[in-house]
Fold this protein.
Amino acid sequence: MDQEQQHTTRTCEQCGGADLRTDQVRSAFWHEDRLVVVEDVPALVCGACHEQYFDDATVMLIDLLRGDGFPPEEARSELRVPVFSLQDRLRRDKAP
Ligand SMILES: [Zn+2]
């Protein structure tokens, strides 16, 4: 019966856009001094500003994962990420 499961009547709280679609996203979280990435997160994504909205069940799953300390043995893979410092840019701007 329901042919409109991809469509929603919600509007984006960020930009007021009505183009919200269900999607699977990747999100990064800080856990103490570790940065972790969670993939395959079901979200409602704004087609205009790309703001992401998670439902309560998804937020709870992420909280449980956080409560478990994002166990390294459950990680699918690892990423190496570049780390920047804004200090370097600030120095460059101040240079004569
Ligand atoms: Zn939006």
Residues 20-94 form a domain with the Ubiquitin-like (UB roll) fold (CATH 3.10.20). DSSP finds two helices and three strands in the chain. The two ends are 68 Å apart (CA to CA).
